[in-house]
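Why do we care about 3D structure at all? Because function follows from shape, and shape follows, mostly, from sequence. That is the central idea of this module. The next example makes it concrete: a single protein chain, its amino acid sequence, and then its structure expressed as tokens.
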Amino acid sequence: MADSATAKKKKAAATPKPKKERKPTAADRKAEAVGKAPTGFCFCGCGTKIESKTAYFVRGHDRRALGEVVDRLYGGVPGMLLKVGGYKVAANGRVTAPAEAAAFTKGHAKSSK
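And the structure:
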């Protein structure tokens, strides 16, 4: 009996277990969405080397790059809000937000009575 138990253990050890498919990480999902894995250099174009294997930007440079794109495409945040955000300027000059944004900003705007 000891021989058959030893043979079973050897057979089990010799048969490789199938590897579990690992779940995609946040870094995997980000690389898939971007279409390119991090390169080791800041994506804003500053040329700073990044030690992290999962980071695309040096801290704060993602905002810098986003600001540059918004400025280039829309002339700034107000232009972006008016062109793609659904914001409107009324005849009296007051800016009105779309319903989704109004729900978000409710309670944040100061009254101008």
